[in-house]
């Protein structure tokens, strides 16, 4: 049956656009790529002929389908770029207000850790997982969006879930993460390697994303001693240049993080906390990925880390 509101599709698009951006972002892990995907989807919708528009039964469902399929195409083309990316590729962090309320409420699906973990999924499986767990779409609708059968859609979501369960970030309250970050910044700023080690779990991993623009570790670092010495080493190098380390609390992707300034450059420090301490450290230093969270309206008070030695 024809949707009686089909002629008002621009208004429906305008109301849904923010949610579509959030959908594309969770599939892609890059806000810039999500904006491109949504813009290209909008151009496609605008180019529909009158008969094609008349055949659309539900504009919201159609918009979800077009944006999802475009995001999958972008993810496929981005796969090669990320394989040849200089060093680890980490998701682009965004401010909490960039996500609609429903997406912010499901912050585990849009967390830095989950977006990073989802990089291991096939594009179609990643899209299916997001449609199911972020939008609560039933399997028949996921199948329609992806052009497959409901049984296959269910299998795709299940397959993605099994892969994600292996390294899924633990659910940790923001206060505990904040305390861990404060202690880590304090220990690193003091140049205290042993105390930094004590805050890290035995299986801790650090990823540093400089994008070839900013100097960073080109490979993940494993183990508390290597991670601690890397972090303290950066702080000591900064101090040797006469530039003390500073830190600002931040909320990105609905979770706590810290923006640190080291050697004159600002970097986002994100951690995951497990039973044994900090189990994952992600340092995003590529300036191309920090633009959205370093806007003036997102600035937070500075934490004093200029401690007496």
From TrEMBL:
- Any one Gene Ontology biological process term? DNA-templated transcription initiation
SUPFAM superfamilies found in the cross-reference section:
NTF2-like (SSF54427), Sigma2 domain of RNA polymerase sigma factors (SSF88946), Sigma3 and sigma4 domains of RNA polymerase sigma factors (SSF88659)
* Gene3D superfamilies named among the record's database cross-references: 1.10.1740.10, 3.10.450.50, Winged helix-like DNA-binding domain superfamily/Winged helix DNA-binding domain (1.10.10.10)
Q: Name one GO molecular function term.
A: DNA binding
Q: Which residues form the RNA polymerase sigma-70 region domain?
A: 15-79
Q: Which UniProt keywords apply?
A: Sigma factor, Transcription, Transcription regulation
Residue intervals of the RNA polymerase sigma factor 70 region 4 type domain:
115-163
InterPro entries linked to this entry: ECF_Sigma-70_Domain, NTF2-like_dom_sf, RNA_pol_sigma-70_dom, RNA_pol_sigma70_r2, RNA_pol_sigma70_r4_t2, RNA_pol_sigma_r2, RNA_pol_sigma_r3/r4-like, WH-like_DNA-bd_sf
* Record carries keyword Transcription: yes
Q: Which family does it belong to?
A: Belongs to the sigma-70 factor family. ECF subfamily.
Summarize subunit and interaction data from the UniProt record for this chain.
Answer: Interacts transiently with the RNA polymerase catalytic core formed by RpoA, RpoB, RpoC and RpoZ (2 alpha, 1 beta, 1 beta' and 1 omega subunit) to form the RNA polymerase holoenzyme that can initiate transcription.
Q: What is this protein called?
A: Sigma-70 family RNA polymerase sigma factor
| Source species taxonomy | Bacteria, Bacillati, Actinomycetota, Actinomycetes, Micrococcales
């Amino acid at each position: 049956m024809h949707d009686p509101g089909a002629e008002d599709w621009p208004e429906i698009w305008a109301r849904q656009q923010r949610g579509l951006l959030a959908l594309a972002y969770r599939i892609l892990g890059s806000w810039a790529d999500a904006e491109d995907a949504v813009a290209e989807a909008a151009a496609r919708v605008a180019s529909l002929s009158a008969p094609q528009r008349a055949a659309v039964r539900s504009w919201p469902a159609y918009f979800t389908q077009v944006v999802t399929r475009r995001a999958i195409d972008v993810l496929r083309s981005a796969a090669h770029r990320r394989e040849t990316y200089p060093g680890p590729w980490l998701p682009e962090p965004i401010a909490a207000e960039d996500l609609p309320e429903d997406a912010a409420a499901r912050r585990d699906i849009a967390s830095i850790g989950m977006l990073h973990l989802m990089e291991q999924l096939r594009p179609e499986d990643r899209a299916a997982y997001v449609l199911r767990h972020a939008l609560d779409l039933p399997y028949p609708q996921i199948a329609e969006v992806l052009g497959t059968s409901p049984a296959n859609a269910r299998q795709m979501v299940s397959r993605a879930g099994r892969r994600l369960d292996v390294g899924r970030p633990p659910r940790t309250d923001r206060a505990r993460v904040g305390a861990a970050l404060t202690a880590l910044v304090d220990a690193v700023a003091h140049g205290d390697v042993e105390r930094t080690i004590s805050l890290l779990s035995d299986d801790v991993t650090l990823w540093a994303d400089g994008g070839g623009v900013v100097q960073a570790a080109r490979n993940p670092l494993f183990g508390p001693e290597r991670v601690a010495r890397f972090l303290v080493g950066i702080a000591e190098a900064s101090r040797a240049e006469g530039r003390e380390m500073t830190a600002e609390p931040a909320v990105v992707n609905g979770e706590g993080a810290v923006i640190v300034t080291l050697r004159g450059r600002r970097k986002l420090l994100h951690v995951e906390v497990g039973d044994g301490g900090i189990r994952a450290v992600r340092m995003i230093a590529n300036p191309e990925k920090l633009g959205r969270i370093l806007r003036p309206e997102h600035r937070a008070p500075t934490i004093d880390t200029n401690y007496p030695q």
